[in-house]
Amino acid sequence: MSNVDRRSELARTAGRNTISVHVGEGTRRTLHEDVLDGLTRPSKELPPKHLYDTYGSELFDRICELPEYYPTRTERAILTARADAIVATTGMAELVELGSGTAAKTRVLLDAGRRAGTLRRYVPFDVAEQMVRATAGALAEDYPGLDVHGIVGDFERHLAEIPPPEPGCPRVLAFLGGTIGNFLPGARRFLAELAALLGPDDFLLLGTDLVKDPDVLEAAYDDSAGVTAAFNLNVLTVLNRELGADFPVERFEHVAFFDPERRWIELRLRARRACTVRIPAIDLEVSFLRGEEIRTEISTKFTRQRLAGDYAAAGLELAEWLTDDEALFALTLARRRLPDR
Ligand code: SAH
Ligand code: AVI
Which ligand neighbours the alpha carbon of 266 most closely? Predict the structure, then answer.
């Protein structure tokens, strides 16, 4: 086959690969607003989405490989064991994935959808543009015939950009990795927004990390190789680059602890010494006392009961609870609660 023939063969067999981008100037404005809002509070905080620039995304990938960070490998094992059953239950013709990242684990589901012959379209949705482009490109190549429609967007603002499902194509809306746990107490509101995206034949596939021994939890967020520390500290580098700030990064340290009352891990950055930071892009000067902290992320740990309560409050019902032998992590299928079901 000549190269020209091979290219046209590829064009015929490869599904469509399209990307729509909904972040840009607006997202930079969000960074401005988030930093102004978060660093002028009595207890300083920053939302976690700014942890994921290109370097932050690379560090997150390294976190997923760490011996202490059990969620990724555990969720992958549950998916591997249950993907065919998930596809059989849902009839998955379309997979929409929020916070898709490299979609490494998603391939387990895509393979099952391909085996069953049901899967037509995959929609990865992530705020990290390069990640969406690279992932969509790689998947379109590796899954000939699959339509891949990447969306670069903020899932707190751009859910409406998800294309409507094709009629008669059951959709699975996946939110894996436990990222739902990174929402500040608004998880129920967000679940209700996801419920609104589901038709009567659609399912939510949600990954949630579970409550367990605090030592195991804290080690997962304070690994011995220091990768999580670098991931956390990188947000200051993002602020220095994007907002012209002058955070002395080496004067801050990574802190991770489990809050047993709220049942969540908190990541913080603590100033080792007092300092004043200028942030020209938002015309702000912020002072830190020695030992003062910025909360950069929470990671909520669930129980079955709590999740069922969150689902009910969001108008969803738990359809399947899938976990590993040690009950470290859960994958659940949920549907919209309909009066006649
Ligand atoms: N699903 C993958 C990646 C989880 S990391 C896994 O399970 O391993 C969280 C992902 O969510 C990152 O890729 C990050 O870029 C993305 N993300 C974080 N906040 C986001 C937001 N507000 N909107 C869209 N994507 C976001
Ligand atoms: C993306 N999210 C589910 C991770 C978590 O475990 O909460 C983010 C993370 N932060 C530090 N390590 C991993």
Answer: 2
